Amino acid sequence: MSYDISNGNGIIFATSDANRSLDTGVAGSTSLLARFMAPAANPMGADPMSKVSGGDAKETFQSGYGSGDAYEGYQQFYGGGGNDTFKLRFKDFGSSADNGMGTSKYVADFHGAGGYSVPGENDFIVFVGFSAGTHLSEARDVTSAGNAAQAGYGRLLQYTFLDAEGHALHAADGSALKLNVHSMDGAGLAAGDYLFT
C-alpha cells in the first residue's frame, strides 16, 4: 500500500496510509512521476497500493512498480488538476475477471477528452510496450447512476485493446485487457488524448 513520488532525482515523498491513497501535495510542480513501490521496498508489507492521487500540478503517473517490475493488479490513477500524463505499460495489464471494476487499470479523472483543446485542462495517456498497430476499441459507457463518484458529471468509459487485425488482446487467464476512463467532460478519447509507443 505504498508508492513513491519522484522527480527523477530520487524519492521526494513516500508513504502508506489506511485509505490506500496519497495526495502529492506538491504545489507548482512541473513533472512528478508517481510510481508504485515493489513489496520488498514497502515498509508496510507486501500488499500493493491500489490508488495514487495527484494535486493541482502537472504530474506524470506510471503503472507498475517504481523498480520497473510489472504489477498486473488493480491500479487507480487520480490526476487532480493540471495537465496530467498517465503512462500505462502493457506488461502491467493483467486479469480483469475478478476485481469488481472489470479492468486492472483505471484513470479516475481524465480531463479534456475528445482531442486537445485550448484553453482548458488536457490530460494524456501514453500506452507503452504494446505491439505495432494496437488501438483502442470504441468506448463502452459503464457509468452507474448509483455510484456517487460518477453521478452528475462525466461518464465512465471502458475500452478494450485491439491488435492490428482487430482482435482483442488478452491476459494470461484469457480475460480481455481493459481500461476504464472516467471522462470528466463526458467525451470519449480521441486523437490528441493518447499515444501508443
Q: How much helical structure, as a percent, in the residues?
A: under 10%
Query: DSSP helix count?
Result: 0
Radius of gyration: 16 Å
Beginning-to-end CA distance, first to last residue: 29 Å
Strand content: 25-35%
Overall geometry: globular
The total strand number stands at 14
**Which strand order do you get reading across the main beta sheet?**
2-1-3-5-7-9-14
Major sheet characteristics: 7 strands, mixed
The figure for the number of domains is: 1
Order of helices and strands: EEEEEEEEEEEEEE
Provide the low-confidence segments as ranges. 1-35, 37-49
Mean pLDDT, as a whole number? 73
Category by helix and strand content: mainly beta
Structural commentary:
The protein has 197 residues and is mainly β. The chain has one domain (2-133, 187-196). It is 0% helix and 34% strand. A hairpin with a 4-residue loop joins strand 1 (2-6) and strand 2.
Descriptors:
about 200 residues; 7-stranded mixed sheet; globular; mainly beta; disordered N terminus
List the helices and strands and how they pair.
Blueprint: E1 2-6, E2 11-16, E3 32-36, E4 51-53, E5 59-65, E6 75-78, E7 85-89, E8 105-110, E9 124-128, E10 135-136, E11 140-141, E12 155-162, E13 178-183, E14 194-196
Parallel strand pairs: 3-5, 4-6, 5-7, 6-8, 7-9, 8-13, 9-14
Antiparallel strand pairs: 1-2, 1-3, 10-12, 11-12, 12-13
